[in-house]
Predict the structure of trypsin.
Amino acid sequence: MHKVVIFAGIIASFAQGELFSSDDARDDWERIVGGTKAANGSVPYQVSLRIWGVRHFCGASIITPRVILTAAHCVDRLKPQYFQAIVGTNQLRAGGKAYTVRKVVQHEKYDDDLIVNDIAIVFTDKEIEFSSTVDAVELNDEPVEKDEELLLTGWGTTSYPGHLPNDLMQLELKAVTYDDCKEAHKTVNAVFTSQICALTKAGEGACHGDSGGPLVREGRQVGVVSWGIPCARGKPDVYTKVEAYMGWIEKTLIDDDEDHWMYIRRRKSNRH
């Protein structure tokens, strides 16, 4: 059995009416391996998805005042009424504001065996109030080259296993080419061109609880935390490539309300 692990702190399931799967992963996670504490307010787009608004299970990112981006495996079979999005804080146990969820849209071709098309959009019931500590991240629609510097943030584990931290962590990574990533994982799991990989060295990387969180280049989100070898074993971590899903994101947002997509377009035009 391959040791491929999706980096979720809680794997939700509604089989036989249960909220959690039999894979009891709930409290066995801590934070990004090898990272440092993120400064308060430095990652205003960071979201903590929490069961009942209390128990963190995945990261996510704000992309418009009413839209959040995350991984499909984070919300797979999870009904909107069972979780909330908390924004505006770097601490899991203090601060922030909770928003209830109106609707979740997973990519229709998400495959939990291959872990591909691992992307989903969460629509909040109410508009998120922006401030100095709450804001949307711009989406990247340009190629990422080898060794470009990327920033990962999340509340994932520092060891395998561990416990959830209170503080949001960050880690600087470098982009890995598709060919190098595919070679690194050839005996483990398929890597697709719709994914992006990142690595620094053994002892640094994503871990459980980081799933769905943002990988960012110069203020623009390039990836969504998807899967890897637990944890920080020197293999590249694999992220859903935002650039590859811009068409899907556009369609999903417009199908709900064209204003969502117009907001993203305005942000991009203002940058230029």
